């Protein structure tokens, strides 16, 4: 028998109108909220696809670095990326500190992936 967790909505049957506010706010306010949320849903979906593409690219970098025994992190590259993103964020009226934190969060995950790829690569080389 399959178990269902009722606290976590099923992603296959996404309810765009799900809200703890239902029944607590005027219908017109709810309608406006749902309309804005439909843009948020599109943006979130785009972010997922963009991140998936970025991780596909960084995975290739991970394999290249492992094959040539290069370090997972490249602090010089990161400094340049952070400075650039902070400038872009300012132009876009996004908090530069948030942009930096977000990039660092993603890069931290990429470095973990690189390290895992390098370990696998090393283990495979030892088997030969
Ligand atoms: O460009 C690289 O060398 C990467 O490994 C990718 C990346 C990134 O996610 O942008 C991740 C780790 C490095 O410290 C720098 C950049």
TrEMBL record:
One of its GO terms (molecular function) is chorismate mutase activity. The keyword Isomerase applies. The keyword Chloroplast does not apply. Its EC number is 5.4.99.5. InterPro entries: Chorismate_II_sf, Chorismate_mutase-related, CM_bact, CM_dom_sf, CM_II_prokaryot. Keywords: Isomerase. Residues 27-118 form the Chorismate mutase domain. PANTHER family: CHORISMATE MUTASE. This is Chorismate mutase. It comes from Pseudarthrobacter humi. The lineage of its organism: Bacteria, Bacillati, Actinomycetota, Actinomycetes, Micrococcales.
